[in-house]
Write a structure and sequence with these properties.
It contains twelve helices and five strands. The protein has 319 residues and is α/β, with parallel strands linked by helices. Strand 2 and strand 3 form a beta hairpin. It has two domains: 97 residues, no CATH class; 162 residues, 2-Layer Sandwich (Nucleotidyltransferase, domain 5), CATH 3.30.420. Helix content is 46%, strand content 11%.
Length: 319
């Protein structure tokens, strides 16, 4: 019977047996499985050491991820940790993992921030209808969403224009400006267009935005039309009509740029460039089944859809 049980199993069994029948004695319980009391204590010490070592490795890995993604939430961090240590025995569950972050002072604090107006809808330019409402997109480059947000620096506010692929959530174009002029939004659009595999891929692609003067301007609209793109805009002030663009803006700002001492425009541009690279290539996205935007956009990974359109929700209620 000597060594007929794997070490971990016999050690757990002896502990359970000794707990129920303490009068038998630990030595006799160990002897039932062909082990000595000394082996029992040695295994316990090895187990404690390995657990402590694993905890330390997890903490160091979290710190490394936080250097690249300073404000990444605990749920996404846990997904990354499972990818790194999933085969290790003794990996903590999510609640234990959050407790570990708390012990190490690695939980995030929510801070309030100022707000700057980036959308001016009071203008004489033509508005366009919302073409993406209740639509389900099944591949990249079927629809892009655009938005502008602000970033505070010591020298003043910079304005970040982003274009995001609606299916993959990948940021495909961006530009940083010191003003809200249309030229910066147009630069982001041109970057996105240059990254298409073929120029004709823009034909029929929906470009969705709010009704800000930048997106309604003659220059911007003519750029879209010249590439055969379909123009879509929000029809009210409800941010849900451009929810994905708003969400991506919020992620870039809150996880990389907010609460950071940014010196000037050049410093801000460098930080934005690094943030977008990590967001696209490393940060797992909940709506993509915790895959990265680049995996879905460039490598053909297919995420499950965990949401329903307004029409689908109504049909479910009626049916």
């Amino acid at each position: 019977m000597q060594h007929s049980h794997p070490k971990k199993i016999w050690h757990q069994t002896v502990s359970w047996l000794h707990g129920i029948y303490p009068h038998i004695g630990l030595g006799k319980c160990c002897a039932l499985f062909g082990y000595s009391r000394q082996s029992y204590y040695q295994h316990a010490n090895e187990s404690d050491f390995s657990q402590q070592a694993l905890r330390e490795l997890i903490v160091q890995t979290v710190r490394t991820y936080r250097e690249q993604m300073p404000r990444l939430g605990s749920r996404k961090l846990y997904i990354l940790i499972k990818q790194n240590f999933g085969s290790q025995a003794g990996l903590p569950g999510r609640d234990k993992f959050v407790d570990l972050l708390s012990e190490q002072g690695l939980l995030l604090r929510i801070k309030r921030r100022k707000r700057y107006r980036t959308t001016d809808s009071e203008h004489p330019f033509k508005r366009y209808p919302n073409l993406i409402r209740d639509k389900v997109f099944t591949a990249p480059n079927q629809a892009w969403v655009s938005d502008i947000t602000y970033v505070e620096t010591r020298d003043g506010v910079c304005y970040l224009s982003l274009i995001t692929d609606l299916y993959s959530r990948k940021i495909v174009g961006w530009a940083l400006g010191k003003t809200l002029q249309t030229i910066h939004c147009r630069s982001a659009l041109q970057m996105a267009l240059q990254r298409l595999s073929y120029p004709q891929d823009s034909r029929g692609l929906i470009h969705h935005s709010d009704r800000g003067c930048q997106y309604c301007s003659f220059d911007y609209v003519n750029e879209l039309k010249s590439r055969g793109m379909r123009i879509s805009m929000t029809e009210s002030g409800d941010p849900l009509e451009n929810a994905v663009a708003e969400r991506v803006n919020g992620i870039i700002k809150s996880e990389w740029l907010y609460g950071v001492d940014i010196k000037n425009y050049e410093d801000c541009r460098g930080r934005v460039s690094r943030a977008i690279k990590v967001y696209n290539d490393l940060r797992p996205h909940m709506s993509l089944d915790y895959q990265t935007p680049s995996e879905v956009h460039d490598q053909g990974a297919t995420p499950k859809r965990h949401w329903k359109t307004f029409r689908e929700r109504n049909q479910a209620r009626q049916g």
